[in-house]
Amino acid sequence: MKTRRKKSFFTWIILLLNQLAVLALLLVYAGVRISPADFWPLAFAGLVYPAILTINILFIAYWLIRFRLYFLISLIAILLGWPQVKSFFQWSNTSASLPDEGKNISVVSYNVRVFDLYNYGPRWELNFTQRNNIFRFLQEKDFDIICFQEFVYDKGGAFKTLDTLPDILRARHTHAEYSRSSRDINFFGVATFSAWPIIHKGTLNFPSQMGNMGIYSDIVVDSDTIRVYNVHFESIGLSPEDYGFVESLTNAGQITQTDYLKQGSLRILNRLKQAYIERTEQVKIVSDHISSSPYPVILTGDFNDTPASWTYREMTRNLSDAFKSGTGLGQTYIGAIPGFRIDYILHSNEFTPYNFNTGSQVYSDHYPVWVWLNIQSD
């Protein structure tokens, strides 16, 4: 008798934990649909969505092994958010052949972290290693359209980028805009390079504490005109102190003071909160502008947000995610808190994506992402 009661109590505890895991999953779905400007705490749920999803899958496996129908609790919850699963993991055929009809356009989006400009040598000399690695990568891939975030232009010419790339790339037509500068020498912003002429250029000025911004470029591809958006949504803006705190979290036994843990956590949470709220207005600016585009649209950029976010859901209301023509998890960020997909290539219905790739090049704190987009001529 005692053994039966013990098992029954254990099952009840597991069932309760399962229900809590499902509740966490539902909070993720709510956070995707509710603007952080209206209720920001829900936005944090998206950061742990992969862990919550994994826990629910483990509950399904547990109940199946025990031949209990309780597995339906997590299964139904996961199916309710199936689009979220597909935005995190894909299993498409990445070796699909490109069609012969229409025009095939290769597009890359890359946050280059100012080409590692501030990684000075021991005598404060400029270090060109990562910049040159990025240049070689772009030359080897020979993309038609290249979209940079965290681009830098050195007006003094000591650290050449804008004045060198058109000479070494087929994508030599340029559109660069800047939101910040250092001593009126180094200018920081976003840049788009195209193998075809850019006939019109525009800037999307964001309300931003970090100088984030967007641009759009109208490009004539043979007889067709397309519009390419290149955006960098609000950054978290972690300070050196914040990076030190995150590093101490990853090293067991480094944090011994409760006050230090509390202050560091609250500081980062506050930065995340402000970034979530700032992004809502930036997303609306881009979304409204795209809705009035007279041309087929490609949207590239660093969203600084995961697929389990309000930002992603809003940007994919009328655009498709090219990632769905790829395979795997698609992690693009490799910085202080790695593991997230925050870099995207989206497109309007006129395009069909093929062979989406997330690169493995460790030349920045982001991996590059690229895809082939086919558009049929009228």
Which CATH C-level class of the largest domain is it? Answer: Alpha Beta
Overall geometric form: globular
Query: Largest beta sheet: what is the strand line-up?
Result: 4-5-3-2-14-13
Task: Count up the domains.
Answer: 2
CATH architecture of the largest domain: 4-Layer Sandwich
Helix content: 25-40%
* Sequence of secondary-structure elements: HHHHEEHEHEEEEEHHEHEEEEE
Largest sheet: 6 strands, mixed
CATH topology of the largest domain: Deoxyribonuclease I, Chain A
Average of pLDDT: 90
Structural class per helix/strand content? alpha+beta
Q: What share of the residues does DSSP label as strand, in percent?
A: 25-35%
What is the CA-CA span between the terminal residues? 77 Å
Number of helices: 9
Number of distinct beta strands? 14
Task: Calculate Rg over CA atoms.
Answer: 23 Å
CATH superfamily of the largest domain: Endonuclease/exonuclease/phosphatase
Uncertain runs with pLDDT below 50, 5 residues or more?
Answer: 1-5
